[in-house]
Specification:
This protein has 13 helices and 11 strands. With 453 residues, the protein is α/β, with parallel strands linked by helices. β10, α9 and β11 form a beta-alpha-beta unit. The radius of gyration is 20 Å and the shape is globular. The structure holds flavin mononucleotide (FMN) and iron/sulfur cluster. Iron/sulfur cluster binds next to α10 and α12.
Length: 453
């Protein structure tokens, strides 16, 4: 590990020199034409290899419908020209919402979601001549559920490190196998509704230590969903199969899953039993293989727990959110970790495309690293998270001009994360400041300075 340093590169050569000095596995190429190539996803095709990652705005209506602000975000994403828009977290059940403004698709608001998918297709086609693929991320927030004003955690096992963070005492109940059995049907119903609403597919979200992600790490849970790998992966694999039966072959089933929790065994997934800091990818790679066998069409890796320590494992940054720690590693090492995870998953599942992430910290050099990764078989799509909030037109600029404009880039300041922690509606405070700087200030004023969830 090398000392933490903020981004300060003035040229691609300076970035390359630092990568060399750190001996980080981050490839770079100046030929970025590969990013304009289309990608087959299941029975469908994305018009290029750039993806918008799921980025929750926490701005839905109280009934779960997209609001005008949600529509604005997706219109900007669609106009930006990415081939794949991986829509944000959308709850499958009221009690699984991460906040009262999280999207929640149900029979009563199908028409509003249909408006959202129509808007994306129309604006994508009008501006770029091509329609993006549009997925919806299905989720249950488990430990981090806050459907109304206060947290209402639903845990699959007790965790001595995480329980105190959300006020869970020893006698707090663990959700039952019966609840989990019934929940599978909710994923199926939500996927069927998503298809009716015009989405191209759904993601069975299994990352960031929400319910399904915690299940993968449920080593100490009793019963059929805890203990060995077969039990811990039962829910996810079963949902993938059931959704496939319900939606047919012409609908994408994806999964974004944590390959490394950076959380100690027996409470973490993808970690060595010796140290939480050492990834052990044997189970995550086996899981990727099993998901491919179960009929998944698309995968994306993520890592870490954004509500706990080490947020750089999920998103490399210059500045942490309030009360966040400065990492004991260089952000390029954090980027390299995520790239390695994507590459290993892509190599394991071969023909199933994998969407990479963790590129936003690289600013205007993002396309040079993304293209090199794709060229070496390390991913099928280059995913933009915070960069899409800051610079939604980045995909068009990359494909049309061969470059991104420095002045429009995300600066990895974590202010969009901070708004979420302060329970506000989020977007880029720096590059979309007219709307989001007041939201940030409001949160700053109203929060008590504590890192909430
Ligand atoms: C404000 C915010 C909202 C996010 N919402 C989601 C989400 O709904 N689902 C998800 O899987 N990841 C979510 N993420 C994680 C991003 O998709 C992405 O993995 C992460 O930011 C790293 O990619 P980047 O470096 O391009 O930002 C969110 C991240 C941020 C900062
Ligand atoms: S607020 Fe904007 S610049 Fe800061 S991390 Fe979020 S997207 Fe990037």
């Amino acid at each position: 590990m090398t000392a933490f340093e903020k981004f300060g590169f003035q040229s691609l050569d300076e970035l390359k020199n630092k990568i060399k000095e750190l001996n980080a596995d981050i490839p770079v190429t100046e030929d970025i034409s590969v990013l304009s190539e289309s990608v087959a996803v299941g029975k469908k095709t994305a018009p290029n290899s750039l993806a918008i990652l799921p980025m929750e705005g926490c701005d839905g209506e109280l009934d779960g419908s997209p609001s005008q602000l949600t529509m604005r975000r997706y219109r900007r994403f669609a106009e930006g020209g990415a081939g794949l828009i991986w829509g944000e977290a959308c709850a499958v059940a009221v009690e699984g919402r991460a906040n009262p403004h999280q999207l929640f698709l149900h029979k009563g608001n199908l028409a509003q979601f249909r408006d959202l998918t129509d808007l994306c297709r129309e604006h994508g086609e009008q501006r770029n001549g091509k329609k993006p693929l549009f997925l919806l991320q299905l989720t249950h927030s488990g430990r981090y559920a806050r459907p109304f004003d206060n947290g209402a955690p639903m845990i699959v096992q007790h965790d001595p490190l995480l329980d105190p963070k959300v006020g869970i005492t020893e006698d707090y109940p663990v959700i039952t196998d019966e609840y989990l059995d019934a929940l599978q049907e909710k994923y199926v119903q939500s996927a069927v509704l998503a298809k009716e609403a015009g989405f191209d597919g759904v993601d069975i979200k299994t990352c960031h230590r929400y319910l399904l992600s915690e299940l993968l790490a449920a080593h100490v849970r009793k019963g059929k969903y805890g203990g060995d790998f077969e039990n811990r992966s039962r829910f996810l694999l079963s949902v993938i199969k059931k959704v496939r039966e319900a939606v047919g072959e012409d609908f994408i089933i994806a999964s974004r899953f944590n390959v490394f929790d950076a959380h100690p065994y027996p409470y973490g997934f993808g970690v060595s039993r010796e140290a939480e800091w050492i990834p052990d990818l044997r189970e995550p790679l086996l899981l990727a293989k099993k998901m491919a066998e179960a009929g998944v069409d698309l995968l994306s890796n993520s890592a870490g727990n954004p509500y706990y320590r080490f947020p750089q494992v999920t998103r490399p940054f210059d500045q942490p959110a309030v009360n966040g720690e400065i990492p004991e590693e260089h952000p390029l090492e954090s980027v390299a970790r995520l790239l390695e995870f994507t590459k290993k998953i892509q190599e394991t599942v071969g023909g199933v495309p994998v969407v990479g992430n963790g590129y936003s910290w690289l600013r205007e050099y993002l396309p040079f690293v993304g293209a090199a990764n794709k060229l070496r078989g390390g991913c099928a799509f280059v995913g933009l998270g915070r960069q899409a909030f800051a610079y939604p037109d980045a995909p068009r600029d990359i494909m049309d001009n061969g470059s991104m404009e420095k002045r429009k880039c995300c600066i990895a300041c974590s202010k969009c994360t901070q708004i979420m922690r302060d329970h506000g509606m989020t977007g880029c405070v720096v590059r979309d400041s007219e709307i989001y700087a007041p939201m940030y200030q409001k949160g700053e004023k109203e929060s008590d300075g504590k890192l909430r969830y």
